[in-house]
C-alpha cells in the first residue's frame, strides 16, 4: 500500500536525499541552452566563461591582472551560476520526491475492459495505458482502478490514500455526486463498473506528477513581467560596464596616471550589479509556491491559478461545512400553551429516538442534558418508528395509540388538521421568531395537539468570524452561499460576519453572481463539488473542486483539493499572496544590495587613475583586489543564504496593504541596503586574515 | 546662505504651489472638453481650425493612430524648419543679412527644436535671422510643447478609461493645448517680461559708439558696437513655459535683454515649472482622485528641494582654491559670496541655482549662469537631474508621463510585496506594460552612456572638450545627458558646433524623444483597454507618504545605479580632488 507521508507534513528544508541530487543537477543545469531562458544568469555564465579565458591567458603570461585574482573572480562567478542552479534544483527536488511516491501508484495495472457497459458482461484484460476514453471497465475488490472515470454501476469502498494521503476508505457509487474515481486508487470491497473519462497520460495522477515535478511548469504572467524588468536592468548594467572601459581609457589619458580598468573587474562589477539574487531564486520561488500548495494537499492545474489566488478579492463560500458545522443542532424547546416544557422535551425525544440524522441525535441529547430525560430504547417501548420521507416531510413514532410527529411547520399543520386540530397562534409566532433568528423550527405534534416547537440552529464554526475579519482587513469580501431562505441566511450571515450572502442559491444564481462581481473588476474564488457547480467553477477565477466531487466539477475547476476541506480556499489565497510577496521582497533586496557593491568596486576600479576616489571606500576594504573579490563572494553566497527564504516564502500575516508594504520595505529595502556593507566588510577581513589577497 | 536667499526660494515654492490647483483644474477642463471660459472667445477659432484641417473633433484614435499622427506631424515640422534655415538668405525678413545655416547645424537645430530639446549648437544672434527665429523656432517651441502635453493627456486617459480601444484625438489635443493653454499664458508672460525690459522688436540691430575705444584680437581699434535686438519677449515666454530653453541670444537667460531683472528671473523660473507642476494636479483631477496628483507632485518636490539644497550649498561654499588665494567667499550685505564664477551678479547664488535646478529638472535647458563654472558638486546636480530622466517636474507633459512610468515601475516592485499582482490606479500592470516601461527607463540611460562612450574614444569627440581631465569628461557626459533627455542646456565648456557633435547629438535627441513617447502611448493604449480593479484595503495605496518615499527611491536608485560610475570619473573625482583627497 502506497501512502504519501510527505503530503501531510511539511518537508524539512535540508534533506540529503534532496540536496545530493540537487548538487549534481546544478552542474547539469550549466548547459547554456537552459541558462539562456534566464537572461540574468546567462550573463553570469558568460562572465564566468570570459574570466576563465582571461585566467588561461594569464597563465601564459599575458595576464591583465594578477593570475590568482583572475582565478578568484572566475571561480566565484562559476559558484554564482552553480548556486542559482542549486536553488532551482533543490526546489525541483522537493517536488520530485513527492512525484516519486505518486508515480509508484501508477503501477502496472491490467484493466478488465467490458464488452458491454454493465456488470456481468464479458471482459478482456487490457494493460492500463491502452485503455481508451469511453471504455467501460470492471474493477473488483483488490483491483486498482486503471484510469480516471465515472462509476456507472455498483458501489464500493475505495482506498484513495495514494492520491490524497487519507487512509480511511471512501465510498464510490453510481449516480449522484460521489461517482468519480481516480486512476491509481484501489477498490477494497465490492465492485464498480467505471466509464473511463481520461485519455492515457492525461489522468489526474499524471497531471499531479507533472505539477509537483515542475516539469511542465510554465512561467506565470507576473513572473514574465518581472523577468522583463530584470532583463532591462541587466541591459542597463551591461552598458554601464561596457562603456566604463572607454571612460576609463579616456580618464587615464587625461589624468596621465594609472591603468585602465581590467576586464576582470568590469565582469565582476557587472555580475555584482545585475540582479543575480532574484534572478537566481526566481524560478525556485515559483516551484516552491506550487510545492507549498501540494503540501496543503491541493493540486493546481496551472501556476497562473496560484497567482490569481493572491489577487482574489471575493470568496464565495458554501455555508454548510465552511461557515457552519455540517449540521444543525437543537438548542431550545418552546412549548405550546398548556404544555410543560418537560412534556414537549419528552415527546420530542421519543419522536427522535430512532432518527439517526445529526439533527435527530441533537434533539435526544438536548432533552437528556437539559431535562434529564434518559434515552430509551425504541424496541423496548414497542413503538413503531415513522421515518422521514420526502412526501410527508415528517418523522416520528407511533406508540400506545399516540402518534408523535415532528417536522416542518406546514407539514405538521397538515398533519394536525387531518386529525381535527389546528396550529395555535402562539406556536405560529414562535416559529416565525425562530426563522427570523436564522434557526430552523421543527414543530412537534401528538395527534391533533400541537405540543410546541424545537429550535434547530446552525452552529457557526468557532474562530470563523475572526478569520473573516482578517480577510476583510486584507480587502477580501466574503459571500456566503446557501440554499436557506433569505431570512435565515441573513441571520447566519450576521452571526458569522460575512459581508454578503446569496440565499436560495441555485447554480444559475451562483453563476450570475460570479459574473456580476467579475464585471465590476473583481476576481472571484469558489469551491464546489457537485456537477451542478461546474458552470460556476468554470466561470470563477480560482475554482477549487473537492476531490470527493464529481468528474465534471474537477474538470471545471483549476485546482483540486484532495482533503475536500471547505476552508482550504483561505489557505490557497495565503499561498498565492506569499508567492508574490517573496518575489517582490527578493527583488527589492537584490536591487538595494547594489549600492554597497558600488562603494566597494568603484574606488577599487579607478583608484590608480584618481587616487582621491579612495574616499568612497567607506568600508575601508584592504586592497582594490580584496574589495572586488569580497563583493563577488558576497554576491554569490547571499544566494545560498536566501534559498530557505525562497523555498519557505516570506512571513505572511493578514494586514492591510500599507502595513505590509511598510514592513517589507523596512526589512528587504533598508535591510538590503545595510546587509551587504556588513557582509562585504566581513568577507574582506576574512580574506585578509587568510592571506588570500 | 543669506536669509534673503532662502526666503526667495521659499516664496518661489509657495507661489508655485498656489498656482498649481487653479491651472491644473483649468487644464483638466480643457482636456475633458468641458467649458473652460476661454472657449467662449476662442471656440470659433478652434472650430475653424478643425474645419480647415479636415479634423473631426470627436474622432477617437487608437494608440497606434495617435502615434502615427504625432510622428507625421513632427516630420512635417522638421522639414519646414530645416528648409527655413537652409534657405534663410533667400527669404525676406533678414535685417542682419545672415547667410544660410550649414546643413549639419540645420539638421541638428531642426531636430533640437522639434524634440523640445532646444540644444543650441549655434549663437542665435549671429546665425538665425528674425523670420527663422519667429516662424521656425518660436512656432516649434509651441508645437513641440503641445505634443508633449498631448502624450501626457493620452496617458492619463489610459488610466481613466475602461475597456476602451481609443485614447483621444491627437489633433484636438494639440490644438486645444496650443490655443487654450500655451498661447494665453505666453501672452501674459511676454507682456510682463517686456515690462521688465526684455526687448521685442523686428527692427535692425542697434549700433552704438563705444565710450572708450578698445582693440580686437588682431590689434585693430574697435570704436563701434553692434547690439543684437529682436522679437525676444515673445520667444522668451514660450521658451520657459514650454520647457524649450532655446534662447534668442547665445548666452540665453543670462543676457540682459532676455532676463534683465531679479523679478524677470523669478518669473522665468516660475514659467518653467508652472505647467509641469500643474499637470500633476490635472492628472489627479482627471483620474478622479486629486490625492494621486498631489502624491506625484510631492515626489517631484522632494527631489527638487533636496537637489536644490545640495546645489545651493555647494555653490555657497565656494572653493578652497579661491579661499587659498585670499578671496572672500563669505556672504555679506555687499556680496552674495560663494562661487560667483559664471553667474550674473543681479541673480546671485540663489537666483542662479534655483534657475539651474529648475531648468535641468524640467527639460527646459534655458540657463542664466554657466553650469560649466559651477563647483563640481554644484555642477553634478544639474547633470544628474537630467540623467534621472527629466522627471523632477520634467518637460511639459514629458515630466508627468516620465514620472508616471516610474510610478508603474515602483508599483510593480512594491506591489508584489503586498501579495497581489501589481496595479496602479486600478489598472493591472502586466507583461506588455512592463515591456514598454522598461524601454522607457532603458532608452535615455543607454543613449547617454553610449553617446558619451563614442565621443570619448573618437578624435572628433575628444576635440570638443575644452578642459582637460575629469572636467572635460563631465563636459562630454553633460552634452549627451542633456540631449538624450531632451533638456538642451549645455555645460558651456564644450565646442559642439562640429559635424560630429551636430550629428550624434541630433540622433540621440531623436531617439530620446520618440523611443520614449511611442512606448508611453503604447502603455496608454494597453491601460485604456483594461478593466478597472476596484479599490479595497488590500490595494496598495498610491497617495500616501509611503508611496511618495517609494517613488522617490526608485527614481534615485535607477538614476544612481546607472550613472554613479560615470559620475565618479567626472564631477565626483573632481570634487574629491578639489577638497584635497
Describe this structure in words.
- The complex is a heterodimer of chains A (693) and B (581).
- The relative contact order of chain A is 0.10.
- Chain A is an alpha+beta fold and 693 residues long.
- In chain A, helix 2 crosses helix 5, helix 5 runs parallel beside helix 9 (263-273) and helix 10 (276-295) runs parallel beside helix 23.
- The longest helix of chain B is centred in the C-terminal third of the chain and has 34 residues, at 545-578.
- Chain B has one domain.
- With 581 residues, chain B is mainly alpha-helical.
- In chain B, the strands form 2 sheets. In chain B, strands 1-2 form a two-stranded antiparallel sheet. In chain B, strands 3-4 form a two-stranded antiparallel ribbon.
- Chain B has helices at residues 3-31, 39-53, 63-86, 103-114, 124-127, 130-160, 170-195, 232-241, 262-286, 290-317, 320-324, 348-361, 376-387, 398-416, 431-457, 459-462, 469-484, 499-529, 545-578; strands at 206-215, 221-227, 423-424, 427-428.
- Chain B is built from 19 helices and 4 strands.
- The model of chain B has no long low-confidence stretch (mean pLDDT 92).
- The chains are: A alpha+beta (693), B mainly alpha (581).
- Chains A and B meet through helix 8, helix 11, helix 22 and helix 24 of A and helix 14, helix 15, helix 17 and helix 19 of B.
Which word captures the global form of chain B?
Answer: globular
Spans of chain A of at least 5 consecutive residues whose pLDDT stays below 50 are 1-10
Q: What integer value in Å does the Rg of chain B equal?
A: 23 Å
Number of helices of chain B: 19
Oligomeric nature of the chains = heterodimer
Query: How many DSSP-defined strands of chain A?
Result: 20
Low-confidence stretches of chain B: none
Amino acid at each position: 500500500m502506497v501512502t504519501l507521508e510527505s503530503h501531510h507534513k511539511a518537508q524539512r528544508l535540508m534533506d540529503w536525499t534532496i540536496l545530493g541530487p540537487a548538487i549534481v543537477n546544478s552542474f547539469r543545469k550549466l548547459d547554456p541552452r537552459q541558462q539562456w531562458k534566464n537572461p540574468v544568469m546567462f550573463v553570469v555564465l558568460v562572465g564566468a566563461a570570459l574570466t576563465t579565458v582571461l585566467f588561461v591567458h594569464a597563465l601564459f603570461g599575458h595576464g591583465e591582472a594578477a593570475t590568482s585574482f583572475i582565478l578568484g573572480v572566475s571561480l566565484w562567478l562559476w559558484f554564482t551560476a552553480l548556486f542559482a542552479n542549486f536553488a532551482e534544483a533543490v526546489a525541483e527536488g522537493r517536488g520530485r520526491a513527492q512525484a516519486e511516491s505518486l508515480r509508484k501508484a501508477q503501477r502496472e495495472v491490467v484493466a478488465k475492459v467490458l464488452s458491454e457497459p454493465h456488470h456481468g458482461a464479458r471482459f478482456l484484460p487490457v494493460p492500463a495505458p491502452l485503455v481508451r476514453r469511453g471504455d467501460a471497465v470492471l474493477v473488483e475488490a483488490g483491483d486498482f482502478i486503471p484510469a480516471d472515470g465515472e462509476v456507472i454501476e455498483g458501489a464500493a469502498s475505495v482506498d484513495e490514500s495514494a492520491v490524497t494521503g487519507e487512509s480511511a476508505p471512501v465510498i464510490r457509487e453510481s449516480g449522484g455526486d460521489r461517482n468519480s474515481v481516480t486512476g491509481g486508487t484501489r477498490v477494497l470491497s465490492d465492485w464498480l463498473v467505471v466509464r473511463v473519462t481520461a485519455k492515457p497520460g492525461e489522468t489526474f495522477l499524471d497531471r499531479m506528477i507533472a505539477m509537483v515535478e515542475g516539469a511542465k511548469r510554465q512561467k506565470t504572467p507576473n513572473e514574465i513581467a518581472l523577468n522583463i524588468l530584470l532583463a532591462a536592468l541587466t541591459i542597463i548594467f551591461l552598458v554601464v560596464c561596457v562603456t566604463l572601459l572607454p571612460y576609463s581609457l579616456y580618464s587615464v589619458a587625461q589624468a596621465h596616471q594609472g591603468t585602465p580598468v581590467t576586464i576582470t573587474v568590469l565582469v565582476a562589477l557587472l555580475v555584482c550589479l545585475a540582479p543575480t539574487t532574484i534572478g537566481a531564486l526566481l524560478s525556485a520561488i515559483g516551484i516552491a509556491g506550487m510545492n507549498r500548495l501540494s503540501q496543503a494537499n491541493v493540486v493546481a492545474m496551472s501556476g497562473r491559478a496560484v497567482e490569481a489566488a493572491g489577487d482574489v478579492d471575493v470568496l464565495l463560500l458554501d455555508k454548510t461545512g465552511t461557515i457552519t458545522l455540517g449540521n444543525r443542532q437543537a438548542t431550545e424547546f418552546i412549548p405550546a400553551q398548556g404544555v410543560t416544557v418537560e412534556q414537549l422535551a419528552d415527546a420530542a425525544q421519543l419522536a427522535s429516538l430512532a432518527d439517526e440524522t445529526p439533527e435527530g441525535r441533537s434533539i435526544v441529547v438536548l432533552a437528556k442534558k437539559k431535562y434529564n430525560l434518559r434515552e430509551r430504547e425504541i424496541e423496548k417501548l414497542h413503538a413503531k418508528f415513522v421515518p422521514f420521507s420526502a412526501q410527508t416531510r415528517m418523522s416520528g413514532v407511533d406508540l400506545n395509540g399516540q402518534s408523535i410527529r415532528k417536522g416542518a411547520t406546514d407539514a405538521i399543520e397538515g398533519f394536525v388538521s387531518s386529525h381535527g386540530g389546528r396550529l395555535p397562534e402562539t406556536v405560529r409566532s414562535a416559529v416565525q421568531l425562530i426563522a427570523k433568528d436564522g434557526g430552523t423550527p421543527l414543530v412537534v405534534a401528538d395527534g391533533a395537539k400541537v405540543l410546541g416547537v424545537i429550535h434547530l440552529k446552525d452552529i457557526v464554526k468557532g474562530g470563523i468570524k475572526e478569520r473573516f475579519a482578517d480577510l476583510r482587513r486584507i480587502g477580501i469580501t466574503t459571500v456566503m452561499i446557501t440554499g436557506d431562505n433569505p431570512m435565515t441566511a441573513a441571520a447566519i450571515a450576521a452571526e458569522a460576519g460575512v459581508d454578503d450572502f446569496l440565499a436560495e442559491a441555485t447554480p444559475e444564481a451562483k453563476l450570475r453572481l460570479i459574473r456580476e462581481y467579475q464585471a465590476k473588476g473583481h476576481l472571484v474564488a469558489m469551491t464546489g463539488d457537485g456537477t451542478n457547480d461546474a458552470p460556476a467553477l468554470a466561470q470563477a477565477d480560482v475554482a477549487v473542486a473537492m476531490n470527493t466531487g464529481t468528474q465534471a466539477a474537477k474538470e471545471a475547476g483549476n485546482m483540486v483539493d484532495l482533503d475536500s476541506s471547505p476552508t482550504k480556499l483561505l489557505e490557497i489565497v495565503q499561498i498565492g499572496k506569499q508567492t508574490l510577496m517573496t518575489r517582490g521582497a527578493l527583488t527589492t533586496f537584490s536591487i538595494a544590495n547594489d549600492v554597497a557593491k558600488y562603494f566597494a568596486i568603484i574606488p577599487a576600479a579607478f583608484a590608480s587613475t584618481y587616487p582621491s576616489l579612495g574616499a568612497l571606500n567607506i568600508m575601508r576594504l584592504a586592497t582594490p583586489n580584496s574589495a572586488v573579490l569580497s563583493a563577488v563572494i558576497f554576491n554569490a553566497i547571499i544566494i545560498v543564504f536566501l534559498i530557505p527564504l525562497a523555498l519557505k516564502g516570506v512571513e505572511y500575516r493578514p494586514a492591510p496593504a500599507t502595513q505590509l508594504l511598510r514592513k517589507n520595505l523596512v526589512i528587504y529595502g533598508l535591510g538590503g541596503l545595510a546587509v551587504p556593507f556588513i557582509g562585504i566588510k566581513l568577507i574582506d577581513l576574512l580574506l585578509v586574515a587568510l592571506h588570500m589577497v | 546662505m543669506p536669509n534673503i536667499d532662502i526666503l526667495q526660494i521659499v516664496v518661489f515654492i509657495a507661489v508655485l504651489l498656489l498656482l498649481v490647483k487653479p491651472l491644473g483644474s483649468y487644464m483638466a477642463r480643457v482636456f475633458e472638453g468641458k467649458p473652460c471660459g476661454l472657449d467662449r472667445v476662442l471656440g470659433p477659432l478652434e472650430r475653424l481650425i478643425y474645419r480647415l484641417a479636415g479634423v473631426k473633433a470627436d474622432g477617437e484614435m487608437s494608440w497606434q493612430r495617435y502615434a502615427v499622427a504625432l510622428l507625421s506631424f513632427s516630420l512635417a515640422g522638421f522639414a519646414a524648419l530645416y528648409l527655413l534655415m537652409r534657405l534663410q538668405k533667400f527669404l525676406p525678413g533678414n535685417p542682419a543679412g545672415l547667410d544660410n545655416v550649414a546643413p549639419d547645424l540645420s539638421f541638428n537645430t531642426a531636430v533640437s527644436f522639434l524634440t523640445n530639446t532646444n540644444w543650441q549648437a549655434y549663437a542665435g544672434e549671429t546665425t538665425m535671422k528674425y523670420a527663422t527665429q519667429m516662424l521656425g523656432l518660436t512656432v516649434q517651441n509651441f508645437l513641440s510643447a503641445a505634443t508633449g502635453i498631448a502624450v501626457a493627456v493620452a496617458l492619463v486617459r489610459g488610466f481613466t478609461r475602461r475597456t476602451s480601444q481609443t485614447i483621444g484625438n491627437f489633433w484636438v489635443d494639440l490644438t486645444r493645448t496650443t490655443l487654450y493653454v500655451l498661447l494665453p499664458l505666453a501672452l501674459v508672460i511676454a507682456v510682463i517680461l517686456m515690462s521688465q525690459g526684455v526687448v521685442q522688436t523686428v527692427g535692425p540691430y542697434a549700433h552704438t559708439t563705444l565710450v572708450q575705444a578698445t582693440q580686437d584680437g588682431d590689434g585693430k581699434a574697435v570704436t563701434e558696437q553692434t547690439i543684437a535686438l529682436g522679437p525676444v519677449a515673445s520667444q522668451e515666454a514660450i521658451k520657459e513655459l514650454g520647457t524649450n530653453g532655446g534662447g534668442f541670444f547665445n548666452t540665453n537667460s543670462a543676457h540682459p535683454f532676455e532676463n534683465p531683472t531679479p523679478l524677470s528671473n523669478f518669473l522665468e523660473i516660475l514659467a518653467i515649472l508652472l505647467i509641469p507642476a500643474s499637470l500633476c494636479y490635472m492628472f489627479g483631477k482627471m483620474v478622479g482622485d486629486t490625492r494621486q496628483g498631489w502624491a506625484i507632485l510631492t515626489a517631484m518636490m522632494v527631489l527638487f528641494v533636496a537637489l536644490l539644497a545640495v546645489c545651493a550649498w555647494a555653490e555657497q561654499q565656494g572653493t578652497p582654491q579661491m579661499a587659498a588665494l585670499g578671496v572672500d567667499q563669505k556672504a555679506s550685505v555687499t556680496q552674495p559670496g560663494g562661487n560667483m564664477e559664471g553667474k550674473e551678479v543681479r541673480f546671485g547664488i540663489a537666483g542662479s541655482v534655483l534657475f539651474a535646478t529648475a531648468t535641468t529638472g524640467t527639460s527646459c535647458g534655458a540657463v542664466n549662469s554657466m553650469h560649466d563654472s559651477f563647483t563640481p558638486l554644484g555642477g553634478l546636480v544639474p547633470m544628474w537631474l537630467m540623467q534621472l530622466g527629466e522627471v523632477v517636474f520634467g518637460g511639459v507633459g514629458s515630466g508627468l508621463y516620465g514620472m508616471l512610468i516610474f510610478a508603474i515601475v515602483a508599483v510593480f516592485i512594491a506591489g508584489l510585496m503586498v501579495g497581489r499582482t501589481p496595479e496602479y490606479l486600478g489598472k493591472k500592470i502586466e507583461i506588455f506594460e512592463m515591456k514598454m516601461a522598461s524601454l522607457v527607463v532603458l532608452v535615455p540611460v543607454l543613449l547617454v552612456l553610449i553617446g558619451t562612450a563614442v565621443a570619448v574614444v573618437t578624435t572628433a569627440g575628444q576635440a570638443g572638450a575644452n578642459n582637460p581631465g575629469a572636467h572635460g569628461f563631465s563636459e562630454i557626459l553633460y552634452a549627451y545627458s542633456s540631449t538624450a533627455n531632451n533638456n538642451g542646456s549645455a555645460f558651456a565648456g564644450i565646442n559642439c558646433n562640429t559635424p560630429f557633435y551636430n550629428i550624434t547629438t541630433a540622433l540621440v535627441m531623436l531617439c530620446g524623444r520618440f523611443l520614449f513617447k511611442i512606448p508611453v502611448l503604447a502603455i496608454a493604449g494597453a491601460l485604456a483597454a483594461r478593466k478597472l480593479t476596484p479599490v479595497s484595503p488590500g490595494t496598495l495605496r498610491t497617495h500616501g507618504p509611503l508611496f511618495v518615499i517609494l517613488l522617490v527611491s526608485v527614481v534615485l536608485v535607477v538614476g544612481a545605479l546607472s550613472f554613479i560610475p560615470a559620475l565618479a570619473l567626472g564631477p565626483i573625482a573632481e570634487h574629491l580632488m578639489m577638497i584635497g583627497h
